Amino acid sequence: MKDNREEIRPYVADMAAVERHILEALERQRKDDTFKDFPQALGIIDRLAGLLETHVENLETHLDSIPGGGVAAAVKETVTGVLGGLAGALLLTAALNNVQQFNDARTYAARPAGGHAPQR
């Protein structure tokens, strides 16, 4: 029979993984030069990152005390990290594609009625 703590382990692991990904996003924003112009926003990001760091550490400490970890947890964490990286790459690709489509549409709309590109 499973220990009740074993049953809760996947939920705690998922919560730690989600919060770790949010923390990684905040860390990227901390390093973004854009935020240097907005010290209040940077202060909020710093406070949120600090809270998340503490919470992730506490979750991981709690997770270590729950039976049922080991290889399965390590594999799940690796797969989650890879999928998160792929999702980020896909979002970046989609965003860049949308910018290109917008630029193409703007260029097309700027053409005169005859359909030829403006002369420069």
How many distinct beta strands?
0
Number of domains: 2
Distance between the termini: 78 Å
Q: Outline the biggest β-sheet.
A: none
Give the count of helical stretches: 3
What is the approximate shape? Answer: flat
Order of helices and strands: HHH
The SS-based structural class is mainly alpha
Mean pLDDT: 74
What percent of the residues sit in helical stretches (DSSP H or I)? over 70%
| Radius of gyration, whole Å | 23 Å
Extract low-pLDDT stretches.
none
Task: Estimate what percentage of residues fall within beta strands.
Answer: under 5%
Write up this protein.
It is built from three helices and no strands. It is mostly helical and about 120 residues long. It has two domains: about 1-70; about 70-110. The model has no long low-confidence stretch (mean pLDDT about 75).
Q: Features of this protein?
A:
mainly alpha; single chain; 120 residues
Topology:
Blueprint: H1 4-31, H2 39-65, H3 71-109
Helix pairs in contact: 1-2
In a nutshell, what does this entry contain?
With 120 residues, the chain is mostly helical.
